[in-house]
């Protein structure tokens, strides 16, 4: 059938009749469901959807619900066109994205070689002199005066950032490692 007109008074009637109505209609056929009241229209949509119908809201009114059987059959399949939408992965990569990023010169990585164990060229003496110069540097100090309180109170350039709080006057933290028992 191309068109089927049915009246229903309850959702139970719709649930029981939906499968039979779907079988009697051809693909693309219309079901015109006349309902007893307006409240039943909202309740009838779910059983019709579960019964395989597509509800047409444009043609429906207060007490009339229009639905149609889909053009496709249950379990129908359609072939995919594999050649149309295939994307070439090589086109997605830009030529500038394939080069490794350049490393700035001021990264801080030392490329100087370490002196060998029996150095005679002077590289070991030069490295020892640099380490001695770093050790002779002024002791750590800060302008904030809150270094002993902890990171929450320290200034941005504080040399103690990241270290635990300590007592004023003590620059080295002494851990009291005792047993709890």
Automatic annotation (TrEMBL):
The keyword Metal-binding applies. Keywords: 2Fe-2S, 4Fe-4S, Cytoplasm, Iron, Iron-sulfur, Metal-binding, Mitochondrion. A motif (Cx2C motif 2) lies at residues 155-158. Residues 144-158 are annotated as: Fe-S binding site B. Pfam families: CIAPIN1. A motif (Cx2C motif 1) lies at residues 144-147. Its main location: cytoplasm. One of its GO terms (molecular function) is 4 iron, 4 sulfur cluster binding. It is found in: Cytoplasm; Mitochondrion intermembrane space. GO terms for cellular component: mitochondrial intermembrane space. It comes from the Eukaryota. The C-terminal domain binds 2 Fe-S clusters but is otherwise mostly in an intrinsically disordered conformation. Monomer. Component of the cytosolic iron-sulfur (Fe-S) protein assembly (CIA) machinery. Required for the maturation of extramitochondrial Fe-S proteins. Part of an electron transfer chain functioning in an early step of cytosolic Fe-S biogenesis, facilitating the de novo assembly of a [4Fe-4S] cluster on the cytosolic Fe-S scaffold complex. Electrons are transferred from NADPH via a FAD- and FMN-containing diflavin oxidoreductase. This is Anamorsin homolog. It comes from Chrysophaeum taylorii.
């Amino acid at each position: 059938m191309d068109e089927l007109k049915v009246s229903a008074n309850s959702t139970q009637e719709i649930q029981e009749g939906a499968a039979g109505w779907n079988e009697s209609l051809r693909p693309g056929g219309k079901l015109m469901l006349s309902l007893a009241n307006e409240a039943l229209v909202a309740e009838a949509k779910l059983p019709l959807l579960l019964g395989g119908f597509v509800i047409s809201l444009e043609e429906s009114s207060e007490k009339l619900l229009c639905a149609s059987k889909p053009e496709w059959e249950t379990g129908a399949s359609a072939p995919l066109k594999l050649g149309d939408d295939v994307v070439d992965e090589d086109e997605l990569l830009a030529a500038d994205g394939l080069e490794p990023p350049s490393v700035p010169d001021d990264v801080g990585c030392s490329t100087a070689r370490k002196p060998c164990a029996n150095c005679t060229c002077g590289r070991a003496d030069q490295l020892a002199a640099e380490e001695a110069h770093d050790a002779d540097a002024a002791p750590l100090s800060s302008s904030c005066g809150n270094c002993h309180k902890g990171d929450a109170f320290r200034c941005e350039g504080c040399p103690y950032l990241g270290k635990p709080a300590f007592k004023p006057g003590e620059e080295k933290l002494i851990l009291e490692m005792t047993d709890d028992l």
